[in-house]
Specification:
It is a single chain. The chain is mostly beta strands and 122 residues long. Helix content is 0%, strand content 46%. The strands form 2 sheets. The protein has a 6-stranded mixed β-sheet with strand order 2-10-9-4-5-6, with no helix packed on it. A 4-stranded antiparallel β-sheet has the order 1-3-8-7, with no helix packed on it. The chain is globular and about 40 Å long.
Length: 122
Amino acid sequence: EVQLVESGGGLVQPGGSLTLSCAASGFTFSTYSMKWVRQAPGQGLDWVSGIDGGGGIRSYAESVRGRLTISRNNAENMLYLQMNSLKTEDTGVHSCATGYGGSSYPADSGDRGQGTRVTVSS
């Protein structure tokens, strides 16, 4: 059974930083592309970033490119999202999910964790 557990969310001021983590279990993590998605209050689910199984190929939504960095540690079955220069529009529940995704693909594809809440506010 696929299990994905996110952590690291919280309240941060605009311009601040957070690192989100996703602990994966129940499947061969290194063979799966992974992604981060998020849902802003009252909005739909949006794709944020994707990474291939080896970690060498990464993509980002235009709104986060240059500020967020996706990475993974296959030895520890962990996925990360380093978030810098946070903006109020980054507020939302951030979840990790299987599959690479992309701006042209449904953000709700694959198995997804419960998410961790990020609030960017002064």
